[in-house]
Write a structure and sequence with these properties.
Layout (H helix, E strand, L loop, with lengths): L31 E2 L2 E2 H5 L1 E4 H6 L22 H18 L3 E5 H4 L6 H22 L2 E6 L18 H20 L4 E4 L5 E2 L7 H22 L4 E4 L9 E2 L4 H10 L6 E6 H6 L4 H10 L3 E5 L18 H13 L8 E3 L10 H28 L1 H9 L6 H7 L5 H11 L9 H11 L1
Parallel strand pairs: 3-4, 3-12, 4-5, 6-8, 8-10, 10-11, 11-12
Antiparallel strand pairs: 1-2, 7-9
Helix pairs in contact: 3-5, 5-6, 6-7, 10-11, 11-12
Bound molecules: D-xylulose (XUL) and cobalt (II) ion (CO).
The site of cobalt (II) ion has 5 residues, from loops.
C-alpha cells in the first residue's frame, strides 16, 4: 500500500470555528439536509486527470507540481503507482467517486491492441482498489483530443481512418467503464468542431458524430452497460467552435438524431461561462428537457476568456447550482466532479487537499444556503404568484393547446389594457444575500 500522504490525517469535519486548514468547516458528510445526508446530495468526485496528471504547466511555463510518486515515465509501473496514490488521496479526503479518461490512467501503446492491453492491466488494479476502498466510478471517458491523430477531430475527422481509430478507443473505454461498474460515460467533444469553415463539411461531420454516438449506444447494449451517457457542452477551446457548444445546441443535436433517450448532459461551470451564459442558465436549460445528468464542478476567472478550471469557491455559484440540483430532486447517476486544477503556484502535494477542501466546503455551504432559501419559500412564492394568471381556466387551456387567437382577441377586448406589476429583481437579490 502506498503512503504518499502519510503525514496527512484523514480530513474531518471540525466546523466553521476550526482554524485547522486541513479540516472541513461546512462539509459534514452525515449531516442530514432535507432528509438526506450531505454526501448523498453532493456526490463529490475527483478527476484523475487533474489530481494525478496535471503538472500545472501553462503555455508560458513548464510543470511545477511536485509529485514524488511519479517518475515521469510512461511505464505501467508508474501508472500503477499513480492509481494507488490516487485511491490513497480519495480515502484521506473522504471522496466517494472518481472520473477518468483512458489515457490518464494507462499509457497509450504503439498499437490499438497494446493500448487496450495497458488499459486492461490498470483496470484490474482499479477494480481491486475500488472494492477495497468502497469507491465508485462516476464516469469514464476516452481522450479523443490529445494525440496528434485527432488534430482534425475524432468522430468528426474528415479521415475515416481516424474515425475508426476513435471508435476503437471508445469501445475499449466503454468496456473498461463497464467492468468498473461506472455509473456513466461522458463524451466531451474537445476537437469535434472546426477552426475554419473553409475546410469543413459541417453537416457531414454532424451526421458522423451522430452515427458515432449511435454505435456507442449499440455497443453499450451489446455488453450490458446500463450506465448513463452524457454529452459535456463547451463552445470553444481547443477548437474555434465546438459542435456541442452549449446545453441548447446539445439538446437540439440529441433530439434531431434520436439520442435523447440515452443521453443527458454533464454541465461544467467554466464551459457555461465561455458559452456566454451563466451556469444557472445552462442547468435550467438541461433540467427543462429532463436532461441534467451530472456537473463538472469548477469555475472560471471573470474576464479571462479561456478555460482556467479553478476550484469552485464562489458561494453564490455553488448556491445556484445546488438550488437547481435540488429542484430536480437531486442527482441520480451523476454528481459533482471536480474538473478543477490547482493554480500553478499551489504546487505542493498538500495543495491537492486544500483545493478539494475549498471546493467541498463551498458546495456544502451552497447546499445549506439553497436548503434555507427553499425553506424560507419567499422566492418560490414570488415566482408562483408572478405566473398565477396562468392558473385560471383560460391559462390552463392555453397551456394545453386548447385556446385560439379569436378567443384571446375577444378576451383582450373585454379586459382592456393589462395592469403591470414589478419584477422586483433587487428585492429578490437582497433576499438571496440575506441567506448567504
Ligand atoms: C475539458 C473538460 C474535459 C472533460 C472530459 O475542458 O472539461 O476534461 O470533462 O473529457
Ligand atoms: Co469537464
Amino acid at each position: 500500500m502506498s503512503s504518499a500522504f502519510a503525514n496527512i490525517e484523514p480530513i474531518r469535519y471540525e466546523g466553521p470555528d476550526s482554524s485547522n486548514p486541513l479540516s472541513f468547516k461546512y462539509y459534514d458528510p452525515d449531516r442530514v439536509v432535507e432528509g438526506r445526508p450531505m454526501r448523498d446530495h453532493l456526490r463529490f468526485a475527483s478527476a484523475f486527470w487533474h489530481t494525478m496528471r496535471n503538472g500545472l504547466g501553462d503555455p508560458f511555463g513548464s510543470s511545477t507540481a511536485c509529485m514524488p510518486w511519479d517518475d515521469g515515465s510512461d511505464s505501467i509501473e508508474n501508472a500503477l503507482r499513480r492509481v494507488e496514490v490516487f485511491f490513497e488521496f480519495l480515502d484521506r479526503i473522504g471522496i466517494d467517486f472518481y472520473c477518468f479518461h483512458d489515457r490518464d490512467v494507462a499509457p497509450e501503446g504503439e498499437t490499438i491492441e497494446q493500448s487496450s492491453e495497458n488499459l486492461s492491466i490498470i483496470v484490474d488494479r482499479l477494480e481491486k482498489l475500488q472494492s477495497d476502498g468502497g469507491k465508485s466510478l462516476l464516469w469514464g471517458t476516452a481522450c479523443l483530443f490529445m494525440h496528434p491523430r485527432y488534430m482534425h477531430g475524432a468522430a468528426t475527422s474528415p479521415s475515416i481512418e481516424v474515425f475508426a481509430h476513435a471508435a476503437a478507443q471508445v469501445k475499449h473505454a466503454l468496456e473498461a467503464t463497464h467492468r468498473l461498474g461506472g455509473l456513466g460515460y461522458v463524451f466531451w467533444g474537445g476537437r469535434e468542431g472546426y477552426d475554419t469553415l473553409l475546410n469543413t463539411d459541417m453537416s457531414r461531420e454532424l451526421d458522423h458524430l451522430a452515427a458515432f454516438l449511435h454505435m456507442a449506444v449499440e455497443h453499450a447494449e451489446s455488453i450490458g452497460f446500463k450506465g448513463q451517457f452524457y454529452i459535456e457542452p463547451k463552445p470553444k477551446e481547443p477548437t474555434t467552435h465546438q459542435y456541442d457548444s452549449d446545453a441548447a445546441a446539445c439538446l437540439n443535436f440529441l433530439r434531431q438524431h434520436g439520442l435523447l433517450e440515452r443521453f443527458k448532459l454533464n454541465i461544467e461551470t467554466n464551459h457555461a461561462e465561455l458559452s456566454g451564459h451563466t451556469m444557472q442558465h445552462e442547468l435550467k436549460t438541461a433540467i427543462a428537457a429532463d436532461a441534467l445528468g451530472s456537473v463538472d464542478a469548477n469555475m472560471g476567472s471573470p474576464g479571462i476568456g479561456w478555460d482556467v478550471d479553478r476550484f469552485p469557491t464562489d458561494i453564490y455559484m455553488t448556491t445556484n447550482v445546488m438550488l437547481e440540483v435540488m429542484s430536480m430532486g437531486g442527482f441520480t447517476t451523476g454528481g459533482l466532479n471536480f474538473d478543477a486544477k490547482r493554480r500553478r503556484q499551489s504546487f505542493e502535494p498538500v495543495d491537492l487537499f486544500h483545493a478539494h477542501i475549498a471546493g467541498m466546503d463551498a458546495f456544502a455551504r451552497g447546499l445549506l444556503v439553497a436548503a434555507a432559501i427553499r425553506e424560507d419559500g419567499r422566492i418560490e412564492e414570488f415566482v408562483r404568484e408572478r405566473y398565477s394568471g396562468w392558473d385560471s381556466d383560460l391559462g390552463r387551456r392555453i397551456e394545453s393547446g386548447d385556446a385560439s387567437l379569436d378567443e384571446l382577441a375577444a378576451h383582450a377586448v373585454r379586459s382592456g389594457e393589462p395592469s403591470m406589476e414589478s419584477g422586483r429583481q433587487e428585492m429578490l437579490e437582497s433576499i438571496i444575500n440575506s441567506m448567504i
